[in-house]
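Re: Re: token formats

Sure, here are both.
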Amino acid sequence: MAEWATIQADDGGSFKAYVEKPASGAGPVVLCIQEIFGINHAMRDIAKYWAGQGYIAVAPDLFWRQEPGIDITDKTEAEWSKAFALFKGFDVDKGIADLQATIAFARAMPGGNGRVGTVGFCLGGKLAYLLACRSNADCNVSYYGVGIEGLLDEAKAIARPLVMHIAEEDGFVSKDAQAAIKSGLADNPHVTIYSYPGMDHAFARIGGVPYDKTNADLANARSEAAFKAALGA
């Protein structure tokens, strides 16, 4: 059951969020945080996946301040150029504020149980990490987040489960960055890091060039276990 919801931003204006509900119509909420391609087919499929696991899936349009309704792919050079331009123009702090507004919206959704998790990919992986540091989300999952190594000073605020999936051959996250992330988070009991040998960035994106079903299924099973424990599904 797919629909679009409208969420009020804290600083004025509003933005859309794609919503997929499970067959039962009820369950905990999982926020699906976009890559740099907007709420495209891949992100809608991710929302459908989590709805299929029994969650209400909500995917907010985080590029709305630049251009609402971005829906592009990774298939052409022109789309990559547009995606990187949007990424460059993205205000991370405002994006986090929009996600915090989405969490508040999700906690009050009909059919929800008041608990909210987040799962983010690429840009969304960084935002999921920041939500672990800055929000009251009950569980956060980061897939190959970019730029986290420069934000490790915030890690001391992490007080709820954070699961991180790191691709060891990630073309956007260097080996040094990966090592810094693992070292910087090693002492936090709330953080679990999984590393995937031989995997490149976006290995869990169905239809993408780096997609690897075996490792994607493994990562998704680990994410599902974390959500089940934290959200009560």
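Second one below.
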Amino acid sequence: MRVCRRAILTILTAGIVGSGAAASAQTPEQFYTGKTIDLVIGYPPGGSNDTLGRLLARHLGKHIPGNPTLVPKNQPGAGSFLAVNTIFNVSPKDGTVIGIGAPTIPLDEKLGTHGVRFKTAELNWIGRLDSLVNVVFMWKTSPVKTFADAQKFQATLSGTGVGSTVSIYPTVMNNVSGTKFKLVMGYKGSSEAMLAVERGEVEGHSTSWTALKVAHPDWLRDRSVTILVQFALKRHGELPDVPTAVDLARTDEERAILGAIMNATEVGTAFFTTPGVPADRLTALRRAFDATMTDAELLADAQKIHVGVSPMPGEELQALVAEVSNLSPALLSKVRAAYTAAN
């Protein structure tokens, strides 16, 4: 009996090992055939990240070997930290989950921001769809019409999660440039936060330029809002007369602090998958992303919904994320003071 049991155990063990080896020997096409990929969007429906995530989901699958189906899933919370933490710690490490979160997450990790449970350099970055320029805009009834006004008078802005750029960038301007923005927190996303502006609950809002122009082109057409500042290293082509936060720096120290923080605009609307994805599947996802960025159907779709496409390959994006670790201790200390202090 003992001999028989040992023989059976040996056969079962060999079968399990053999099946694992067979799975790992699959080509990306064999693996992805018939599969579904979850595209996790760390924000509520309706904002720019949701719009761009769903744009990618409509076109990426046909360029991945095996043509898997991509299913967008919103997982908002804590400025996208909930989704990023889940992808890093819980999701399968096999290339069946892709995510998008705040472009500032590499800096959040470096600064030790509350709620961070991920390591951005260990995420596998697939590619960037577009840079992400945020703005602060004020409703037409607000007495604050210029950035200089914002340095003199308190102005209320609708806010969402503490880890979101919606909240981070106005906080930075308060701490570095002396503005008097007061964040009214608790809105569930930029769509709801912008409605709060229209209802008169607050005077303005900070969100991406894409979200504003896609959700409310009429506000721009009718000059219902005034854009005070754009958060970028250089001026967006559609906003040539709006100063960047870096333009408004008064000293070299302010310029260095703001430049380090605005690097997030280069990370932009970037997509990543979990740590531990087999190298051939990661390569397949990256090359599929690159092909999607030149897909005529995607470009036509982007034009139809008024969003830009300024891609960056996954390998370059991975290197850009790693560069955050090169901030000097002295500069990092100053960035932390600007980034994390309360309004």
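The longest strand covers residues 124-130. The CA atoms of residues 39 and 72 lie 5 Å apart.
- S.
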